[in-house]
C-alpha cells in the first residue's frame, strides 16, 4: 500500500514537470553597454515572460534600477523550440523590439526588430 501511494506521488510530480516549457528558468544575457543580466523566464498565462532577476558589470553583481523589470513579454510557443509574437525591452537604449526566440539546448537565440533595425543576442542557461 505504501509503495502504491509513493508511486502515485512520484507519477503526479513527474506529470507536473513533464508539461513544463523548456525555456522556463534563468538565462544570462550577453553583455550590452558594459552590463549583463540574469533573466527569469516564466509562464504568464499561455505566453512566456522574462523579468530581470540579477544584474552584473565587470566588477561583479550590482544593484541596477532595472532589477525586477519585465524584459520579455507575450512570447508565444510556436513549437520545435521556437517562440514568437512577443516583445523585448533593451534597457541600454530603452527601446522595445518585436521579438522572437529559438531554443537550442542551453542556448536561447533572441532577436528583435524596430522598423528595419534588428538586433540579436544569444543567452546562456544559468545552471
The residue fraction in helices comes out at 10-25%
Class from helix and strand fractions = mainly beta
Shape: globular
Q: Kindly identify the CATH topology.
A: Lipocalin
Order of helices and strands: HEEEEEEEEE
What strand line-up does the widest sheet have? Answer: 1-2-3-5-6-7-8-9
Total count of domains: 1
Cα end-to-end separation? 38 Å
Which CATH C-level class is it? Answer: Mainly Beta
Summarize the structure.
The chain has 127 residues and is mainly β. The protein has 1 helix and 9 strands; from the N terminus they run αβββββββββ. Helices cover 13% and strands 58% of the residues.
Please tell me about this protein's structure.
The protein has 127 residues and is mainly β. Helix content is 13%, strand content 58%. The protein has an 8-stranded antiparallel beta barrel. The radius of gyration is 17 Å and the shape is globular. The termini are far apart.
